[in-house]
Amino acid sequence: MLLRILLLFFSLQLCCSIDSITPQNPLKDGDVLLSKGGKFTLGFFSPGNSTRKYLGIWFTKVSVQTVVWVANRDKPISGPQGVFSIGVDGNLQVSSGKAVAWSTNISALIPPNDVNSTSGQILDSGNFVLASNNGKTMHWQSFDYLTDTFLPEMKIGLSKRTGLNRYLTSWRALDDPSPGNYSFRVDPNGSPQFFLYQGSDPVWRSGPWIGSRWSGVPEMTRAFIFNYSFVSNPDEISVTYTILNDSVISIFLVDGFTGTVKRRTWQESAKRWVEFWSAPKELCDQYGECGAYGSCNPNSGNQSECACFPGYRPKSPRDWYLRDGSEGCVKEDNVSMCRSGEGFLKLPSVKLPDTSKAVVNTSMTVKECAEACLRNCSCMAYTSADDSRGGSGCIALYGELIDTRLYPGGGQDVYFRADAVALAKYQKSKVALKNKRLEVILIVLAVLTFIIFVSTTAFWVHKKKKREWEEKRQRSIWIKDADDSDSDSELPFFTRNEISAATDNFSFANKLGEGGFGSVYKGRLRSGQEIAVKKLAQNSGQGVQEFKNEVRLIAKLQHRNLVRMLGCCIQGEEKMLIYEFMPNKSLDTFIFSKPIFISKNKLSVPRNCFLVLLTKEEKKASLDWKKRFDVILGIARGMLYLHQDSRLRIIHRDLKAGNVLLDKDMVPKIADFGMARIFGGEEVQANTTRVVGTYGYMAPEYALEGLISMKSDVFSFGVLLLEIITGRKNSGFYPDNPSINLVGHVWDLWKEGRALELVDPALNNDVDSEGEILTSIQVGLLCVQERADDRPAMSAVLFMLSNKVEIPSPSQPAFIHKGGHRDVDPSSSSTGAYSVNEMSVSATMVQGR
Ligand SMILES: *[C@@H]1O[C@H](CO)[C@@H](O)[C@H](O)[C@H]1NC(C)=O
Ligand SMILES: *[C@@H]1O[C@H](CO)[C@@H](O)[C@H](O)[C@H]1NC(C)=O
Ligand SMILES: *[C@@H]1O[C@H](CO)[C@@H](O)[C@H](O)[C@H]1NC(C)=O
Ligand SMILES: *[C@@H]1O[C@H](CO)[C@@H](O)[C@H](O)[C@H]1NC(C)=O
Ligand SMILES: *[C@@H]1O[C@H](CO)[C@@H](O)[C@H](O)[C@H]1NC(C)=O
Ligand SMILES: *[C@@H]1O[C@H](CO)[C@@H](O)[C@H](O)[C@H]1NC(C)=O
Ligand SMILES: *[C@@H]1O[C@H](CO)[C@@H](O)[C@H](O)[C@H]1NC(C)=O
Ligand SMILES: *[C@@H]1O[C@H](CO)[C@@H](O)[C@H](O)[C@H]1NC(C)=O
Ligand SMILES: *[C@@H]1O[C@H](CO)[C@@H](O)[C@H](O)[C@H]1NC(C)=O
Ligand SMILES: *[C@@H]1O[C@H](CO)[C@@H](O)[C@H](O)[C@H]1NC(C)=O
């Protein structure tokens, strides 16, 4: 009986999963080959509405037929008589009757005696291999002749030994796989780069490989899902990748329809491909958008995104004015290159200019690189060849510097050659280089010091001006303090009189809020710009430290989702920070209805409470799910920038709804860095004796042991995420279960599969978004897990939120009971929206043991 079942099983196996063809057993139209693990299928297919037949390979398990390779791309067969076979000379061929539509061309390589033992096999990688000697001698593989799809384990690039160039070409149309106009191939010159071409015109450039990513793909992070490896040696230039999790199905392809390269991942639950990444995305990605010596800034406040390098001006001002920057820029002054006194100016955070004329030396240090570049008059710029570990190696750029663009927070610094005139003009960012003129500089410095000394003394004598002088001194102190490396972080300094005038002498009418560290006022500068002024309380013991911290930090941070500081003001003990004004105030005014049950006179409901609730509910309803989701993504991006993408590692320590401001377009901006901590490069966790933050948002290891890490911010983010979805405060009071907080509540319902019941009623049962809402709740629960190690990093959070991937199940969250730590009435000190740490508390930990 057992034997019979076994026999049946094997015969079934045999009948249903043939994975190879032999000279004796060709493949006919209608039959297919199935790879051993069942991942790929090879057979005849007709794309779209076409009736023509092609031989191709497609994913077996993807329900939308996705062809990754085609043999007879431009020679289709028109009837059902197609045959895929191994010919008498050992070559693979696709034929119909007598007519051969396609064949390989390797006849010289297969000895006639071996022909009968050759076989062609489809592998689980999607590769079709023709081999003889029981698979020992390989003659041909489909991975060497790519069509439009780049699969894991494939290589694209140039084999310098054999001359074989593997590259992708788009399909001509959805129902026509013949080669289209777009191709993606390596440019081996200089420092190798990949280009997307339309015909022979470059459309987009990946930039060179700079250690762990392409210079033009800043969103590529450390091996997380995809592990790319790039090889450039005398034998070959190639790139390949693997997918770290076998259950993820993903392809990289050239899409001729949109003229882009893109990566897609298959989402089984929705039965569709989801776009993971694509390029070019914006104008600045277009090759040479701003021409030579022009740099493209997608977020420039200007109407035109092009700007010339410092010391350069538009070559054709008229075209430039008409927003065509492709002519590029020329030098501003008429000093020819290669004179004494030359040096370098820095272009911060950019995609490297075209490196096809670059010279790479990986054994040089960056300093040697600068010196070598300065010595050779035709060297136009330099940068490090490996950006991943603080910078090493040397890329020296020759020829015109073209296709440079800015990546706020994500690019690489490039130093370009500038003459003495330009250096003097843009001296602030001049790169210090040892040179013979040290004496001259010393003399200049001595003279300057003398002048400063004399003038300060003179000021001092004039008692009338003492006050102004005091301000200037303070200013120089903080600038020195705050600005240890960059000059671009310099901020305008406002006098107290200016601020006083702007806020109508800090009138009560302009007051936006008040909290432990001071008050916030609305103001309008004489220029008309609206500002928010945070005036720190003079007697707050933490003021000085927090102030310096905040100034130092924010001066360096620039991100769409972080609030922008416009300047500051110090006068004596009084310190003020000036921010851009956010008309929509903070997020908590949108998502929470007035917590009537925890108002000061406890459970007494004000008589007009119904009215109050109504208007609040209207405000809540104005934030529909789509807007809320955008807000969540925005906050996540801002946090990711703080944790990972800015050059510093910053732990915010006080993320909460009150510290997220909304601009007029409802773009969220994280505010209040008074408590942030900067971490050193490799430091991931620290111990603090001063625990600051807001109850309800504090991670357990932080609240109880003073341990801070990025994961403690992730915890706060999780709480905030759940608050945004439910429209309730974590520390709020729930009549149905008073001993438990929001997180506990969500967890309880989640376990029972009823989490949707807690969704803010103001979202009006948005049925279409239920999937997204559930995903977000699940991510929120992952973020508030008890063990810090279990919580995902912000990069993973953002990935899970913005891609439809499978998400792990959360374990029990921390602090679900209100008794978990001391309870503080959060509404007691709040007067309104524009928060100033209004609910933040601070406690000194007693260092145990
Ligand atoms: C196939 O034909 C149908 C009906 O004419 C059309 O709606 C559809 O877009 C076509 N599909 C392709 C891939 O061209
Ligand atoms: C096959 O290869 C030979 C030499 O490699 C070349 O001369 C010939 O044109 C090729 N034939 C086809 C059909 O590509
Ligand atoms: C290969 O097989 C065919 C058919 O089975 C046979 O006629 C031929 O002689 C064989 N060739 C060699 C070299 O064994
Ligand atoms: C390819 O480019 C040519 C010439 O630029 C154009 O005529 C043709 O329509 C393009 N084909 C496709 C499929 O876009
Ligand atoms: C990524 O690939 C490289 C080289 O193929 C390998 O050494 C490394 O271990 C891989 N990384 C991961 C996380 O699998
Ligand atoms: C805006 O354009 C002007 C004139 O073209 C230029 O001087 C300025 O630097 C530009 N600002 C930015 C932020 O690009
Ligand atoms: C630069 O200087 C040269 C001679 O010194 C002069 O002929 C030329 O016109 C100048 N160019 C510009 C743009 O000023
Ligand atoms: C790279 O730089 C090192 C150190 O300066 C030098 O010895 C070596 O010759 C350089 N290599 C090339 C290929 O230029
Ligand atoms: C400058 O560098 C280029 C490219 O490496 C080289 O061809 C040229 O000879 C160098 N010139 C000098 C003066 O060293
Ligand atoms: C791969 O992903 C699946 C679902 O997303 C997950 O269950 C599995 O643990 C992952 N495997 C690895 C090795 O990460």
Automatic annotation (TrEMBL):
Domain Apple: residue ranges: 338-419
The UniProt record lists the keyword Cell cycle: no
Location in the cell: Cell membrane
EC number: 2.7.11.1
Residue ranges occupied by any Bulb-type lectin domain in the UniProt entry: 18-143
Chief location bin: membrane
Entry keyword annotation includes Protein biosynthesis: no
Keywords, sorted A to Z: ATP-binding, Cell membrane, Disulfide bond, EGF-like domain, Glycoprotein, Kinase, Lectin, Membrane, Nucleotide-binding, Receptor, Serine/threonine-protein kinase, Signal, Transferase, Transmembrane, Transmembrane helix
GO molecular function terms noted in the UniProt entry: ATP binding; carbohydrate binding; protein serine/threonine kinase activity
Biological process (GO), any one: recognition of pollen
CDD domains per the UniProt record, alphabetical: B_lectin, PAN_AP_plant, STKc_IRAK
TM spans (from-to): 440-461
Residue ranges, compositional bias (Polar residues): 826-836
Catalytic activity line of the entry: L-seryl-[protein] + ATP = O-phospho-L-seryl-[protein] + ADP + H(+); L-threonyl-[protein] + ATP = O-phospho-L-threonyl-[protein] + ADP + H(+)
PANTHER family, per the entry: G-TYPE LECTIN S-RECEPTOR-LIKE SERINE_THREONINE-PROTEIN KINASE RKS1 (PTHR27002:SF1095), RECEPTOR-LIKE SERINE/THREONINE-PROTEIN KINASE SD1-8 (PTHR27002)
Name of this chain's protein: Receptor-like serine/threonine-protein kinase
